[in-house]
From TrEMBL:
PROSITE patterns: ABC_TRANSPORTER_2
InterPro entries given in the database record: AAA+_ATPase, ABC_transporter-like_ATP-bd, ABC_transpr_FbpC, ABC_transpr_MalK/UgpC-like, Mo/tungstate-bd_C_term_dom, NA-bd_OB-fold, OB_MalK-like, P-loop_NTPase
Pfam families, alphabetized: ABC_tran, OB_MalK
SUPFAM superfamilies named among the record's database cross-references: MOP-like, P-loop containing nucleoside triphosphate hydrolases
A GO term for molecular function: ABC-type ferric iron transporter activity
SMART domains for this protein: AAA
Name of the molecule in the record: Glycerol transport system ATP-binding protein
GO-annotated cellular components: ATP-binding cassette (ABC) transporter complex, substrate-binding subunit-containing
Amino acid sequence: MAKITLSNLAHAYRPNPQSRSDFALKQMDHVWDDGGAYALLGPSGCGKTTLLNIISGLLIPSQGKVLFGEVDVTRLPTEQRNIAQVFQFPVVYDTMTVYDNLAFPLRNRGTEAHLVDARVRDIARMLGMTDVLGKKAQGLTADAKQKISLGRGMVREDVSAILFDEPLTVIDPHMKWELRTQLKALHREFGHTMIYVTHDQTEALTFADKVVVMYDGEVVQMGTPADLFERPAHTFVGYFIGSPGMNVLPAKIDGASAYIEGCQIPLSRHYSGLETAKTVEIGCRPEFLTLTDRPDGLPVQVRRVEDVGRLKIVRADFFGREVNIIAPEGASISDRQNRVVFDPARINVYADSWIVEGKAA
């Protein structure tokens, strides 16, 4: 296992990059703790796989360094980094049994037979594959083959890190939940440093201790699932995390008040110095908005109500902008409810898309 340090790291696929926009991966400095479980989360093309390939050694960065512990591995080939990697699609030896597939990484390093056997059976037990250890991989389903790939990634105890590149893409939805649970259990039991690449927020939030959200080649926030939900550092994080995502509305901020289309919204903190920002916005998650018939709040027109069982999602219109409100299960939505009230303590203020820390009001 290893602490992973990314120092002044950036990468451009084109030669002689001149400006920030030339970089597929913008400059970053991060330390990922030894034994941590991290998820790289973001849309396609945001730089997740580029960053993973730099960590794994498949790609040498244009600038900066990668350290495993205190060792600079920036220019070391993959085989010298002592990592395991699980790819998007199963990588197995069809003519081998499940047992031999799981044992292969250990046997390849000359591990004694009794240690190989103990470790293979431990991993098979965690993956629920004990009863198929003697079967050839060729006849197994894609789900089972991907479980073998996951097991081969986990079977070595001495790896610096285990890297997962969207490993559950080919897995059916129910099995995805089961495998995420098993990965969490494996991490708790063996304590490897794990980095998991995905564009699925559910996978990221249920797997990782910390989620690294990427957007346009940049890490816009690294934090716990609670951090990302309660205090999105960037409006993209608010939009990307949550279903539906955070409501973001342009506003004018004056001290402890926000003004939107002439309506005043109280804030829990005092803000100043926003005059130079190109854009100023407030963000508030649908969970912290309340639809009401009181005269205060923003005037809205309810377009539709989506009943998803445990809650209702109210889709409303405010001067041509969609505003989403989450109402509890069983809540009655009437025609008289045409105002939205915000919880002041849950409103975030953003200048040029980045969160602003106000002062106690």
